[in-house]
Amino acid sequence: MPELPEVETVVRLIEPRLAGRTVVGARVRWARTVGKAGVAEFERRIVGARVTRVWRRAKYLVFDLSRGGRPAGHLVGHLRMTGRMHVEDPAWDAGVHVRVSLSLDDGRVFHFIDVRKFGRLEFACDLEDVFAAIGVEPLSAEFTAERFHALLGARRRRLKPLLLDQSIVAGLGNIYVDEALHQAKLHPLASSLRVDPAAARRLHGAIRRTLAAAIEREGSSFDTFYRTPEGNPGSYQARFRVYGREGKPCRSCKTPIVKFTVGQRGTHVCPTCQPRRPGSRSRKLRLG
DNA sequence: ATCCTATCCTGGCTGC
DNA sequence: TGCAGCCAGGATAGGA
User: Fold this and answer.
1) What is the predicted pLDDT for the residue at A36?
2) Is the per-residue pLDDT at A286 higher than 70?
3) Which domain holds residue A104?
């Protein structure tokens, strides 16, 4: 699923084809994709606007717009599970799942493609509302180990649901949470309140390393859905330590990876590397 | 305060 | 081969 590294990859690949272009036409094929403002309002806001910048915040893609050299709002996209973005020649076949197409002044066409229709591409006058409840960027300088430890200690929640909560740390999803927790040797059900400074530092480092390494490899293409805008799969999935590896040996200790459900999310752990209670090895060893 | 469930969606997979 | 039923999941809303 597109998480921070996948979204960042999309931004980097479409930015050169989009920045500086003016939208000359819009076609919305699935009304809900453009949000509650409605198709007519969406088209009115978008057609004639020029894209001045393409960037990312959390898992959102933002296209800054201008008219006559003045700021004119933003196009805010979210890929959710199966969204994709392409900028292609008009002859390119966008397929049956294309939800919104924007014609550009250089003749090319921007496509928002989304099999499951959960993704969004909405116009927003002001980004403050959009990002009001979004937490710290995990790759930013503000995301320090100390601040992370304070965030963990400010509530009593299980680690995994906390890390998936976009209002605390922004951009993590199911895959990279499982990967980071394994790397930090922490159990997804551990209480955030009981994470000591050393463990918080480990998890902080694991989050940043995992995300940075995934961006370097253009994200993960675990299923058939995610592709870079150039049509290529990412390659980080080859590095997964736990995600999608149920029953396979842990890369650190060979213990079979176990899958269970946490907050309705498939969750993968190594029972040896990630003991339920910190400090205790497996129950078997203690009883033996 | 936190957790849980349903909702939005479809393609792919399983099992009969 | 065909088909019903289940599963995946990011975000959010509403109830427990």
Assistant:
1) 87
2) no
3) 4-124
Q: Which of residues 35-94 of A touch strand B (CB under 7 A)?
A: none
Instruction: Name the H helices within chain A.
Output: 4-18, 39-46, 127-130, 145-153, 159-164, 174-183, 197-216, 283-287
Active site includes A265? yes
Amino acid A6 CA to nucleotide B12 C1' distance, rounded Å: 22
Is residue A233 part of the annotated active site? The answer reads no
Q: Would you say the C-beta of A158 is within 7 Å of strand B?
A: yes
Same domain membership, residue A261 and residue A156: yes
Residue of A168, A226, A175, A174 whose CA lies nearest to A192: A168
pLDDT tens digits, A122-174: 999 999 989 999 999 999 999 999 999 999 999 999 999 999 999 999 999 99
**pLDDT confidence of residue A278:** 58
CATH number (domain holding residue A242): 1.10.8.50
What 3-state DSSP class applies to A108?
A: coil
- The active-site residue, picked from A3, A8, A15, A218, is A3
A95 shares a domain with A60: yes
CB-strand contact A233/B, under 7 Å: no
- For a pLDDT cut of 70, what percent of chain A falls above it? 92
Q: Render pLDDT for A250-264 as a digit per residue (tens, 0 to 9).
A: 999 999 999 999 988
Residue whose C-alpha is closest to residue A99's, from A79, A84, A114: A114
